[in-house]
Amino acid sequence: MALIWPTLVVIFIVYAFYELLNNIQNRKRYPPGPKGLPIIGHLHLLGKNPHHDFLKLAKTHGPLMYVRLGLVPTIVVSSADTAEKFLKTYDHIFATRPYNEAAQYLAYGQKNLITGKYGPYWRNMRKLCTQHLLSNQKINSFQSMRRQQVELMIKSLKNEACDHRVVVDLSAKISSLSADLTCLMVFGKKYMDEDLDKRGFKAVIEEAEHLAATPHLGEFFPFLGVIDLQGITRRLKDLSKVFDEFLEKIIDEHVQSRDQKQSKDFVDTLLDIMQSGETEFQFDRRHIKAILVDMLVAAVGTTATAIEWIITELLRHPQVMKKLQKELEQVIGLEKMVKESDLENLNYLDMVVKEGLRIGCCELDVEEHFGLATSREHPLMVIPTYRLNNA
Ligand code: HEM
């Protein structure tokens, strides 16, 4: 036991030395960047908002900049042209995802889409999800459900804010609408907060996002991963049990009630695929659960955050809000509710949503911890400069 720490220190020094030599050899292949320190690289240059710090550094070193985060060489991209090269032109080279603890525990060993490794499995799984879960036909089949839920929310807003004149927490309303819409589409019914865990849906999903986004010492100094100094692996293991028990329960419920159903939610569709045995790759309960976690995590927070951002921007720009209200009044009228089929006639609303997504960059900046950290095999940071310049 007494030998553990000296052994670890020796391993640390040897490994760090090896990585440094490697980095020095590779240095010529990297773009310019600020001067770093031994072992920690450029970590000392980063504060609470790394994307702000990267942007400042990029102003001196250019839109394609090299930094080393601990032992990990990283390229920081901060212009639209360069980002396009990485994310579009050469996307196939940079698209794959590295090993990552969160994906290991929450996505059943990277069997999902969001953190899955780029390759035949990912391509096939993506095709399958696009064809069966995210096709227009499937999404349209939930239209009346979406309408009902939005109507319910509007009724409750009217009741609380208009009739009873109480202050309404709009973020909480939007968040619970988003969770309800997602649960109904994915699982076929709403779940109460405590069905997932006593902390509730929002808190659990936020913890998953938080743990996945928290800078993990083991990612900057891989040999430190096993020690789990920050307790992240332990928390991920606990969280994965919460998700797994919940998903197992849902799959069991679906298996039991399959014959009595008219409309199919995502779980039914995935069970059909599993039982058909027609996939070109192994497809069992773990794959179903990995995709369900993806859908849950990908849909709940993003949708709520996008709506919140857009409403915030509208409040900050009253003249835009007025113009939008005018369009709604003229095209729909004051007494009617907007239907999904009306959306194609609401051009100004379309522009507002697109602009909101562009400047809010919602999914990519969930907690304002990062600009856009694309967790790619070759670490790559993309900085949304518009938002930062206008902060
Ligand atoms: C306003 C809402 C949304 C925003 C802004 C958003 C944004 C994004 C972004 C930026 C990515 C790419 C991430 C990357 O390349 O690493 C992504 C991927 C994904 N999103 Fe969304 N999303 C939203 C809503 C949804 C919803 C409602 C669902 C499902 C019902 C969903 C399912 C997915 C899936 C499955 C992926 C992975 C796709 C892949 O890797 O090919 N998203 N989303």
TrEMBL record:
Keywords: Heme, Iron, Membrane, Metal-binding, Monooxygenase, Oxidoreductase. It is found in: Membrane. Its cofactor is heme. One of its GO terms (molecular function) is metal ion binding. Belongs to the cytochrome P450 family. InterPro entries: Cyt_P450, Cyt_P450_E_grp-I, Cyt_P450_sf. The keyword Heme applies. The keyword Membrane applies. GO terms for cellular component: membrane. It comes from the Eukaryota. Pfam families: p450. Its main location: membrane. It comes from Solanum stoloniferum. This is Cytochrome P450.
